[in-house]
Amino acid sequence: PFPLDVSIAAYYIKSTHTPYMKYLERVKENSKDFETIQSSVVKEAGDYTKTRYNIVALSLKQLIDAHTDFRELLLLISLLDSQDIPQAFLYSYKPEVIVDNFIYNLKKYSLVSSEASSDPKGIVSIHRKTQEIILTYLVKTLNLNSDSPLICTITTTFEKYIVE
Predict the structure, then answer these.
(1) Are 15 and 41 in contact (CB under 8 A)?
(2) Quick check: 25 and 35 in contact, CB under 8 A?
(3) In terms of pLDDT, which residue wins out, 134 or 146?
(4) Which helix (H) or strand (E) is 85 found in, with range?
(5) 11 three-class SS
(6) How would you class 32 by CB atoms within 10 Å of its CB: exposed for 0-12, middle for 13-18, buried for 19 or more?
(7) For residues 128 and 113, what is the distance between their CA atoms, to the nearest angstrom?
(8) In this predicted model, what pLDDT tens digit does every residue of 15-57 receive, in sequence order?
(9) pTM greater than the 0.85 cutoff
(10) What is the chain's Cα-based Rg?
(11) Count of beta carbons in the 10 Å neighbourhood of residue 25
(12) What gap in Å lies between CA 80 and CA 65, rounded to an integer?
């Protein structure tokens, strides 16, 4: 649904003669080599090297640098359904003032879906592809695995919220 993605895909497929399904597999894997060739193809086509992953990753880095608790909140929202995330659930994980600051910053970096950015019911929604990028970025930068202490903490929060 993003014009940048459509342009990148078209240039990549045309330049490399990669079958469409193979391109989609590479997008899901999102390897460093794929990002590099994708940036090169786009640069040759229009002197522009930013892919959506790079753009979102830059915003994520700035978010994490803004407040140390944001990385945990980002991981939390990347493990949920991307639509209709209750703020009450986020409040059960971190203090309200931190969550409110987090949501403000998500809006600031356009990481919140526009229809949810002004929702009066206390829910937050993000685009599904953006959520995938967030999870991929965090897994890479935080070296996460299934027995990571951060994952265990989030799992405990899920359990407590469900019980309540």
Answers:
(1) yes
(2) no
(3) 134
(4) strand 85-86
(5) helix
(6) exposed
(7) 10
(8) 788 888 888 888 887 777 887 777 777 666 655 556 677 788 8
(9) no
(10) 17
(11) 12
(12) 23
Q: Which helix (H) or strand (E) holds 149?
A: helix 149-163
Q: What is the Cβ-side half-sphere exposure of residue 16, based on CA atoms within 13 angstroms? A: 19
Distant-in-sequence contacts of 48-53, Cβ < 8 A, 24+ apart: 50/4, 51/4, 51/8, 52/2, 52/4, 52/5, 52/8, 52/129, 52/133, 53/133, 53/136, 53/137
Tokens of 66: 């803004």
Residues in the chain: 164
User: Would you state the structure tokens that stand for residue 147, as one six-digit string?
Assistant: 């027995």
More confident residue, 9 or 43: 9
The rounded distance, in Å, linking the Cα atoms of 15 and 40 is 11
